Amino acid sequence: MPTILDTDPRYEELDKYIDQVKEKKGMLIGVLHKAQEIFGYLPIEVQHHVAKKMKIPESTVYGVVTFYSFFTMKPRGKYQIKVCMGTACYVKGGQKLLERFREELGVQGDEPTEDGLFSIQEVRCLGACSMAPVVLIGERDFHGRVTPDMIPKIIDEYRKKEGKKK
Amino acid sequence: MSVKHTILICAGGACISSGEESVKSVLEEELKKNDLEDSVRVVQTGCMGSCNLGPIMIVYPEGVFYQKLKPQDAKKIVEEHLLKGKIVSSLLHRGPTGKVEPHAKEELPFFTEQVKIATRNLGLIDPFNINEYIANDGYFALEKVLKSSPEWVIEEIKKSGLRGRGGAGFPTGLKWEFTRKAPGDEKYVICNADEGDPGAFMDRSVLEGDPHSVIEGMEIAGYAIGSHHGYIYVRAEYPLAIERLNNAISQAKRYGLLGENILNTDFSFDIELRIGAGAFVCGEETALIQSVEGLRGQPVQKPPFPAQKGVWGKPTVINNVETLANIPVIINKGAEWFASIGTEKSKGTKVFALSGKINNAGLVEVPMGTTLRKIIFDIGGGIPNGKKFKAVQTGGPSGGCIPAEYLDTPVDYESLTKLGTIMGSGGMVVMDEDTCMVDVARYFLQFSADESCGKCTPCREGTRKMLEILDRIVEGKGKMEDLDMLEELALTIKDTALCGLGQTAPNPVLSTLKYFRDEYEAHIKEKRCPAKSCKALIAYQIDPNACVGCTACAKVCPVGAISGEVRKVHEIDQEKCIKCGSCYEVCKFDAVKKVDAVDLKLNIKNE
Amino acid sequence: MKVMSLEDLQRIKEKFSKDLKLRKPKVRGKIVVGIGRHEEKDKVERILKAIWDELEKNSVNDIIVTQSSGTEFHEAEPTVKVQIEENESVVYGHVDEEQARRIVKEHIINGKILSDILVKGGKA
Predict the structure, then answer these.
(1) What is the ipTM of this complex?
(2) CA-to-CA distance for B485 and B493, rounded, in angstroms?
(3) Which helix (H) or strand (E) element contains residue B8?
(4) Start-to-end C-alpha separation, chain B
(5) Closest partner CB to B279 (pick from A67, A142, A148)
(6) Residue C80 buriedness (CB in 10 A; 0-12 / 13-18 / 19+)
(7) Would you call B131 an interface residue with chain C, using a CB distance cutoff of 8 Å?
(8) Distance CA B525, CA B598 (A)
(9) pTM of structure
């Protein structure tokens, strides 16, 4: 498990952001969003750093991190495969997509693949119901009307992008 | 050179996910190549509504509606339509009778039967361009309001009969009045854009397609209640909405239509975005307030209501996106005009997100009181593949399922409540004969159980217990007593849970128990799933009379459970079969059948 | 640029509403097939098909064809309303496929009103 050292230069960027929003009230969630954007995840040492810098109890920070599903304390894959589990996607076979992704990548739950490229996440309705079932990879790549047999090809696309053929 | 053609391209969520951006880049390339950049204007608009036809392009002045476009189609449109003046008929929409409809937007019932108020600018203006918003009467309502008294504004909204579009339908004017009258000099306006119901994308479309209407609505609310600060609480799942809102806010500020001394008056109002972090419960107003403050989004006891003690303990009005988008139009056109649309108790229109087993999935806005039949069959175009309608789910995890015999119910707050569901935010998921209603109930309950914030016991423990029972039933291990237990738990949760989400979580179970009890009983007594959907209760079998031995099924089977030689009848080994359904989907001869596992006499031990 | 007054708003509106006006199709007219009762959907479809067919045969593509449920002339349904440019609209009653084709050929193409099936309008 990689840990983030106190001397990690990325803290500087985070501190700069915290200083920027210092004047505003109730910015903890916003700061955690920023921290996750910078570090990729929110290990306990990052949480402690945020608590100290914002003068908020560590328990409050931990409470917020664990409450919201968007925040993660474990690293995620470079490409997050978000399989929509909204109603429309569910009735159109979203569950089958999830199973196939796990089978193809050989992972369970939301753990990342060994090469760190992918992790799978079940997500709440992505609001693209007319394209159901949908899979969102990263922030922007929507795949609509996906069937299980399209999945190997989709995964390959990203592997190719990384120059790592099967 | 003057503009000869205007091309609108839909940049709604569905069109983007079906490749709108690459269509647009080819179009722009081709325009450049043919030196048409000055005579053709390309505008990216918000969601046009007909999401299943995307990507969509409308070419004016002819008004030709091109649909389901691929990048190379853009080249064809440039070469044929723009250069030679010939309509590309292969890219037109085809009606059910096969006839092409070149002016689909004016011709299809999907568009012509709608009345657009909250979505007036969607698919028409460029959401990045404040001038186009102003051109369609934008910010005129704000100007009118600033010349009137706050009391007049509240009175006008009260007279219009507008009720909250986010769920429960509380009269908006009253909410504003309470907040105005609450003691305190610091007050807040919050726009609830935490659209979390699965199957709902109305608010997302409005935020992405017409962000200024929400901003203007919030400013009017702010003026009416005496507030100078607003928050928009948006889901983190909607990055595009966040981007367009941020852009709209800075544009409005640049124009002096937001910020200090708006329109050269004493009124100042500022808006800040707050991004959620993936918790469904934050759509509940008291939880939302906690989250705006940066805390865990757990609901708190009401009263005090937010109108008395809201964010930072100050009086706060919380309105949903669609509610706010209606406000400027009501002010411009008058309360009487608005009140003339809809039914006696539910005024105006409602935006619905149609999805599921329906031909025309998409966004529709219709007058309150329109029947479900009209929405689903006339506008939505009915059920695909000749299947039979079974139910429509409204109101998300807080709502219920309405069966076919109530299709002629007018859609308004009261009628839906009477049927055991709610209007909710406007998600409408259509289900056909292949959908198992027990499984649907289980799906929603799982949702509520997962999303329970854990603060109160009835919701935290009760939904979990109900889920356990439903899990048993879909596996064919249920008992008849389970149904009584389900009902008892459901009613207890309804009475005792802390917040609105907990109290309504049992609705999907109660409504399916009421209308589809026979399906529950079939699962329990006969170990059959009538929709042939529950994995544990079905098996796949090859019909020897239909199988031609094409081997497609054997090739696709992930576990090698299918055997058979080329051009000979294949067979499925039930011991090996994992019921993934791949063979069923791949068979072109309808030879793979779903059957009740009990009829194969292997399967579930029936103790 | 700050917007300081109603006049400023109006100036912007005037300038940009020209663009919005270009986003409406330029068409010559509109045919609306009206029927109220639900069970007669097939009939409407047959009439619509006849109209489309006739329009296509004569390469007319500046006419919009729509349907509407519920008209003011219940007894005369199915009705066909024809609106050409700014002229007063004309309503025909008890229309079948044959009549529908006539409406396209005579009224839409030749501008002649069919007085024998007229329900409303068309004095001129």
Answers:
(1) 0.89
(2) 12
(3) strand B5-10
(4) 83
(5) A67
(6) buried
(7) yes
(8) 11
(9) 0.89
Helix (H, G, I), strand (E, B) or coil at B78: helix
| Euclidean distance between CA atoms B191 and B321, whole angstroms | 6
| 3-class DSSP state of C68 | strand
d(CA B398, CA B415): 16
Rounded CA separation B190/C31 (Å): 46
Helices (H), B293-376: 321-333, 335-339, 372-373
CB B173 within 8 A of CB B220: no
**The one-letter amino acid at C74:** H
Residue B18: how many other CB atoms lie within 10 Å = 25
Which tokens hold the place of C29? 């007219």
Which H helix or E strand runs over A123? strand A118-123
Residue linked to tokens 């079939």: B522
CB contact under 8 A, B237 and A91: no
* Domains of chain B, first to last: 5-107 (3.40.30.10), 130-339 (3.40.50.11540), 349-432 (3.10.20.600), 437-526 (1.20.1440.230), 535-606 (3.30.70.20)
Q: Which of B606, B543, B554 is nearest to B576 (CA)?
A: B554
Helices B211-225/B321-333 angle, 10° precision: 80
Cβ atoms of B237 and B13 closer than 8 Å:
no
- Contact across the interface for B279 and A26, Cβ inside 8 Å: no
User: What residues of C are in contact with residue B263 (Cβ under 8 Å)?
Assistant: 3-5
Q: What phi, psi does B327 have (nearest 5°)? A: -55, -50
Residue in this structure with the two tokens 């109730």, named with its chain if needed: A26
From first to last of its 166 residues, chain A has per-residue pLDDT tens of 457 888 899 999 999 999 999 889 999 999 999 999 999 899 999 999 999 999 999 999 999 999 999 999 988 888 989 999 887 788 788 999 999 999 999 998 888 898 889 999 888 777 677 778 999 998 778 888 899 999 999 999 899 888 754 4
Q: Which two tokens stand for residue B562?
A: 């299918």
Q: Which domains does chain A have, with CATH numbers?
A: 4-67 (1.10.10), 79-161 (3.40.30.10)
SS3 B57: strand
**Which of B432-461 are b and which e, b meaning 16 or more Cβ less than 10 Å from the residue's Cβ?**
beebbbbbbbbbbbbbbbbbbbebbebbee
Give the gap in angstroms from C-alpha B215 to the nearest C-alpha of chain A. 21
**With contacts defined as CB-CB under 8 Å, which chain C residues touch B92?**
none
Nearest residue in C to B63, CA atom: C25
At residue B480, φ and ψ (nearest 5 deg) are: -60, -30
| Residue C35, token pair as written in the block | 């029927």
Give the number of other CB atoms < 10 A from CB of residue B424: 26
Q: What Cα–Cα distance (Å) separates residue B237 from each residue in A82, A126, A128, B243?
A: 11, 7, 11, 12
Contact residues, chain B, for C67 at CB < 8 Å: 109, 112
User: DSSP label at B596?
Assistant: E
**pLDDT-above-70 percentage for chain B:** 98
pLDDT tens-digit series, residues B229-261: 999 999 998 989 999 999 999 999 999 999 999
Distance CA B219, CA B314 (A): 18
CA angle B183, B184, B187 (to 5 degrees): 115
